[in-house]
Amino acid sequence: MSRPAVIEVPPIGPWQAATVTDIIDETPRVKTFSQRLEQPFAHLAGQHVAVRLTAPDGYRAQRSYSIASPPGDGLSIDLTVERLDEGEVSSFLHEELRVGDTLEVRGPIGGWFVWDGSCPALLIGGGAGVVPLMSMLRLARRRPQQTLVHLVVSARDESELIYASELSGDDASVIFTRRAPANSIRGPGRITADDLTPHVHSDATVYICGSAGFTAAASELVLRAGIAPDAVRVERFGPIP
Amino acid sequence: MTRITRAFTGRSRAADRRLPPGQYDAGASWPVLTAEVTPPIDTARWSFTVDGLVQQPTTWTWDEMQRLPQCSYDGAILCVTTWSKFDMHWRGVSLDTLFGIEAPLSQATHVLASSSTGYTTNLALEDVTGTKAWIAFEADGQPLSADHGGPARLLVPHLYFWKSAKFVSGITVLDHDEPGFWEARGYHDRGDPWLEQRYQGD
Q1: Is the pLDDT of residue A1 over 50?
Q2: Residues of B in contact with A17 (CB under 8 A)
Q3: pTM value?
Q4: Residue B115 burial by CB count (10 A; 0-12/13-18/19+): exposed, middle or buried?
């Protein structure tokens, strides 16, 4: 953890109201919720917010969701949320939330899995792990020539690929693990060294986000490719399989 | 400020008085959150050092640590990301035992725990003494896996679990509070779940 400089982290704001302005279906199990904040905050690419729901009897449920939008005017954020079968908050957001509704959010949170746009980065995401990485890629794409960042995404098949319309450029590659499209060169299968090697550069910081199994596999591949452990930042979620 | 969320009733619930505010019961699952590559740690090369404001810095090897009296903790762990896991059984060496061998000097007020990865977290001395903190090697009857910070992690279960540093390798005794890895990035210096001290200013 010594190598990358500590990035200046904005303070975590108080709980505030956020109004839903748009809901986008990304995949059958994933939606993006655009929100307008009451009190603007400046987030870094890779940060998340806490979302809090309150029932009439005072019962509350709170979860953390990554911000998918790049740093912007500070007034609006996009949260991309995967619906989990047992997920009390994610299923509420997917089933009940409508445009115009108000949520409580708090952020921005997280000062480690962040990219400030100043140094080369390799982004490796599995499933919904692509969300904080998309914020980074969108930030990088604001440059006239986007050469700082490459994103490698792993999805089961085309129907589960989040942000598919934004992943056709040279700065992104997609790996399908279960079923690949008919016209693809790469057959279906889990991430391998060959998927990463062309994009590994010794001066890059590597950001890996996904399930425990995915992040463990991807970490091992980048370390074997010669990246130093302290240049690898990991964010993982979910139980151990 | 708390406002009611339209249409939200929450899952059916019996009030569980073991749950601090904002936490939920993760049941049998044990989520893993990590900031860095999980390092392979060989117990043959493992060591734990207490230094700073003590008479004599002391280092224990794995075997030396295993020969110290082993204690257990039965209860919950509480993550700041709101999952909680109840009815766990942990085993390890109490920090009271280590401080009994190497007592903090009278001016000591805080400690900074460090991991072999470079992770740090700060704790008040009173939060790690008096049967509140352990160097843990075993959870629910199994050696602590690398995913959960093994072979040894700090266990301070009355505080949010980021205080229970994975891959713990030492404790430095200080006469002041020094923010650790997450605390320097906006997380609360103490992290009491019952006071919902998640972030600075809570």
Answers
A1: no
A2: 3
A3: 0.87
A4: buried
